[in-house]
Amino acid sequence: MQKFYKLNQYIAASQLRVIGPDEKQIGVMSRDEAIFKARQMDMDLILVAEKAQPPVARIIDFNKFKYIQSQKEKEGKKKTVRTDTKEVRITPFIAQGDFQTRMKRVKQFLSLGHKVKLTVKFTGRQISRKNFGEQLLHKSCQEVVEYGTQESQPKWQGKLLWVTFSPIKINKKNEKEK
Predict the structure, then answer these.
(1) What is the number of structural domains in the chain?
(2) Contact 153, 165 (CB under 8 A)
(3) Which of 9, 19, 157, 162: disulfide with 58, CB 3.0–4.6 Å?
């Protein structure tokens, strides 16, 4: 999303608090005086905080200002951790080998830091045996207890019974000790 800044003669406020190119405050002055100072330095006057009293403007080259803002935005994006939710589906009457394979996959996702939604899908008349699905989810919770924590109780959504797991946060100090 592009943010628009008011520059030079497009600033409407009559009085401005002006910050210089060295990021030190110059003082409160009229708009015309601030524009004159910016032109003397061969730079632009950019309105930074419009809602402040008086509004804050900065003397800086506009291209340099845009570059600084984009760098701040990139830095902010780096700090946000994005976790994906992976879904693993099983049926209530799954074979033991298939169950172990699915649990291995769940453990792998959790160790990589992803959330996992484990879904038991009932087809046809299997829905009459809901307790098998609940037992299967309980068994799977026991399997992945050292990799992740169960976020909530199992929930029904039509013919699906599901539960979500979130990965256990390992401290970096504990990781180094191992």
Answers:
(1) 2
(2) no
(3) 19
